[in-house]
Design goal:
The chain is an all-alpha fold. The protein has helices at about 10-30, 35-50, 60-110. The chain has one domain: Methane Monooxygenase Hydroxylase, Chain G, domain 1 (Up-down Bundle).
């Protein structure tokens, strides 16, 4: 006799919550709210760890696969945004250093 697998009805909702979190994470990054994005990433990481503590069942494979694909696309876009923000922040630091050096040079020149 074949045993039926126990279906956990909370798993699809849990997975949907992870995907909603992923969308909110990308939206926060796109709006420049990096503090919120970091918070959402920590939450998502914990949710993903919890979800995959139990391997997806065969009947879950299709929707889990689609969700993973969505997460990968979203994370690729998130990575692009992070790289762009990193470059912008680096340019800002360089600009501030140049301004500080110019200010010091001006102060030195006017003090003489």
């Amino acid at each position: 006799m074949r045993r039926l697998a126990v279906v956990d009805p909370s798993r699809p909702r849990e997975w949907d919550d992870i995907l909603e979190n992923t969308r909110a994470l990308l939206a926060a990054a796109m709006s420049g709210d990096w503090g919120r994005a970091m918070q959402l990433e920590r939450e998502r990481h914990a949710r993903i760890d919890h979800f995959f503590a139990t391997a997806p069942a065969l009947h879950e494979a299709a929707w889990v696969r689609r969700g993973i694909e969505e997460i990968l696309v979203s994370d690729a876009r998130l990575s692009e945004l992070c790289q762009r923000e990193k470059a912008r922040a680096g340019a800002e630091v360089i600009d501030l250093r140049h301004k500080a050096a110019a200010s010091r040079a001006y102060a030195k020149a006017t003090a003489a």
